[in-house]
Amino acid sequence: MKITGRANISWLLVAAIIVLAIVILMIAVLGYENIGMYILLTAAVLVLTFLLLAIVLKDRKTASELGYDGLTVRGAMLSVKIPYSDITSVEIRDEINFGLRVGGYAGMKRLGGKFRNSEFGVYDLSAIVSVKKYIVVRSNNRRVLVFNLETEAETVSFYERLSKWTGRGPKTTDN
Known about the structure:
By secondary structure, this protein is an alpha+beta fold. 34% of the residues lie in helices and 32% in strands. Keywords: Membrane, Transmembrane, Transmembrane helix. InterPro entries: Bacterial_PH-related.
């Protein structure tokens, strides 16, 4: 089973470490006399860091692909690949309780990264909040991926193709 995710990093922690390293470097080079400048430079670095993150994450669309060997989903703070042989079920839903963000991105329009809720536990999410259709993919090691695309129609169409590729969609019986 190979599921990779990049949402485990707390970007706030990364920004704080970078700022701390810059401040320590400035103190080592310039000394303690210019403490006002350190504060000003630290604030400038923080602002630039958050602006850069906002630009990078602003329009990160969910991209999903049915590749030769597996399903790939990329979105804000998420990149997941699940081999078809590891997928145990695929379903489509009209609503999801997103729960709490563990690590990743939670904007007004998009959600992405690691989330936790009572149904799935910790799971991977890449969702557009305004689109009310979600694809839920479960893998053989109990990992769950929830995602949608830019529109409900695109999400349903992708679900139907994924179900055919994996043979793990809803079962029907012929009478």
